[in-house]
Amino acid sequence: MAILEIKDVHVEVEDKDKKTRKKILECVNLILKTGEIHAIMGPNGTGKSTLSETIMGNPRYHITEGDILLNGESIINMPVDERARKGLFLAMQYPAEVLGVTNAEFLRAAINARRPSGYSYKASISRPESISSSIPKLGLIINICKISFRFFSLPEKPSFK
After folding, report:
1. Sheet holding 20-33, edge to edge
2. Which helix (H) or strand (E) holds 30?
3. Residues with Cβ < 8 Å from 134, sequence gap 6 or more?
4. Which residues does 104 contact at the CB level (< 8 Å), separation at least 6?
5. What does the pLDDT look like over 11-24, one tens digit per residue?
6. What's residue 122's pLDDT?
7. Which residues of 48-75 are buried (b: 16+ CB within 10 A; e: fewer)?
8. Cα separation of 82 and 88, whole Å?
9. Are strands 149-151 and 38-40 parallel, antiparallel or unpaired?
10. Hey, how many other C-beta atoms are within 10 angstroms of the C-beta on 115?
């Protein structure tokens, strides 16, 4: 069972234009365990995205106090790719499209990044039904998403003026 623990985390965001930092999060404490579902909800601008970006190691966000532990090991000095190999993954509400990269290719690359060097998964997983049938055989998709994050924010209604 994986445990992600956020202990007394304080976060500042860097404003490159003004060359200043603004405090966004204060005293955040949270424990997430494999299989649990947590919904972090709130109005726009309350730090939901800041928390997720901080967990994943976005360099714009600076932890000034506290720690983030994955299975008892601090991750705050780990690069993003190392965090991903340990099982953390951030899905965006409106992900950017990368032309020419299919979901199947993305999943294949994620699986291969977790495998020992010299071994890669090359089988065809181009159709959704073959992807879902491959999951039990691979056993790695579940490891990629050890801890499920569900961050909800209400999108602003589009204005048609």
Report:
1. 20-33, 3-15, 61-70, 73-74
2. strand 20-33
3. 123, 125
4. 125, 126, 131
5. 999 888 888 898 99
6. 56
7. bbbbbbbbbbeeebbbeebebebeeeeb
8. 9
9. parallel
10. 12
Does the structure show a pLDDT above 60 at 121? no
pLDDT(74) > 90: yes
Amino acid code (one letter) for 151: F
The set of residues, in sequence order, having a beta carbon less than 8 Å from that of 66 and lying 6+ positions away, is 6, 7, 8, 9, 10, 27, 28
Residue whose pair of structure tokens reads 């000034």 in the numeric block: 64
The tokens describing 61, both together, are 């966000």
CB-neighbour burial class of residue 20 (10 A; exposed 0-12, middle 13-18, buried 19+): exposed
Compute how many other C-beta atoms are within 10 angstroms of the C-beta atom of residue 11.
22
Q: 68 - beta bridge partners?
A: 6
Q: Output the pLDDT for position 68.
A: 97
Q: What is the pLDDT of residue 73?
A: 96
Residue 57 has pLDDT above 90, yes or no: yes
